[in-house]
Design goal:
The protein is α+β, with helices and mostly antiparallel strands and 280 residues long. The protein contains 6 helices and 14 strands. Helix 5 runs antiparallel to helix 6. The structure holds coenzyme A.
């Protein structure tokens, strides 16, 4: 795996207490799970709703992506929470955001609250897990067609559109569009709003190579300040993570690659300094 990310801190997990638990991020290529194994795990682990969704895909490629993503979610949450994969109850908000149902006595492992968010695209699944606050993640492959990128661009703020126009046409410009898009999706997914939040109501100022320099949140943002991480964990695969910059959780992220068969040693990455504004 090539990791082009901000400063790796160490190769091993940091010795942190529960209240300082780092963000966990899993990047799983579809190739990490052979189709027959994914289907077998899914048959045991997924719930009725997931089985129905999987059955509806017209193309086998899309079904495979879905099965890898959803077995990844159940396996990683099971490890994190200390529950069996099939026992996890996942419910969805009215806007479609999945949540792990809390247990009355708390989780066997990991306190009483876990939040997670999933993205799957272009042969990759990206899963973020945090304790005690919210997370949003997004993964996109470079190589979207020009018309799709042009449509995406029209949803941005005038400042963001201007920044994109400052890059040479082609890969450099496409990269700028997709960097903004993954960050915007990660932010609105952390808030549970998905595409229900107009993307021109909040604005990112990005460094030319990587990193968020400034963030203007939408007026209704209850947190105001956020940590955003941009990653290119594999060449031409862009990922973004958004977590509120509150007192919960250490500003560290553990990046795991592949399917979580076991507790492999992750790469530890420092999350960038918070950006944004405090309302009120
Ligand atoms: C969330 C959304 C932005 C995903 O965009 P995408 O780039 O196509 O897909 P991604 O792969 O990045 O993310 C998909 C995953 O995000 C998660 N998700 C779905 N809705 C979400 C939301 N509102 N907030 C956060 N995460 C959400 C799900 O896990 C979903 O995967 P799954 O359906 O296989 O479980 C988009 O689907 C959306 O806006 N959905 C909400 C639609 C809506 O508002 N419906 C209202 C019904 S009244």
């Amino acid at each position: 795996m090539t990791i082009t990310a901000p400063e790796p801190l160490s190769a091993g997990p940091a010795p942190l207490g529960e209240t300082q638990a780092p963000v966990k991020l899993w990047l799983c290529p579809n190739d990490a799970l052979p189709p027959a194994i994914a289907a077998d795990l899914a048959s045991h682990w997924l719930d009725e709703r997931e089985h129905k969704t999987a059955a509806r895909f017209l193309f086998e490629r899309d079904r495979r992506q879905y099965l890898v993503a959803h077995t990844l979610v159940r396996r990683a949450l099971a490890l994190e929470a200390g529950l069996a994969e099939a026992e996890l109850v996942i419910w969805r908000s009215s806007r479609g955001r999945p949540f792990l149902q809390p247990l009355p006595g708390g989780l066997p492992r990991g306190g009483d609250h876990l939040d997670f968010n999933l993205s799957h695209a272009g042969g990759y699944s990206l899963l973020g897990i945090v304790r005690r606050h919210r997370i949003g993640v997004d993964v996109e492959g470079l190589g979207r067609d020009a018309q799709a990128l042009q449509t995406i661009l029209t949803t941005f703020t005038p400042e963001e559109q201007q920044w994109v126009a400052g890059a040479a046409r082609g890969r450099e410009r496409d990269r700028r569009v997709l960097r903004l898009w993954t960050l915007k999706e990660a932010y609105s997914k952390a808030r549970g709003l998905g595409l229900g939040l107009p993307f021109d109501e909040f604005c990112f100022t990005l460094a030319d190579d990587r990193g968020v320099l400034a963030f203007r949140p939408p007026a209704d943002d209850p947190a105001g300040r956020w940590r955003f991480l941009e990653l290119e964990p594999v060449p031409d695969v862009l990922a973004a993570v958004a977590v509120p910059a509150d007192e919960h959780g250490a500003p560290l992220l553990e990046l795991h690659h592949g399917f979580p068969w076991s507790r492999a040693t992750p790469h530890t990455i420092a999350l960038p300094e918070p950006v944004g504004a405090t309302h009120g």
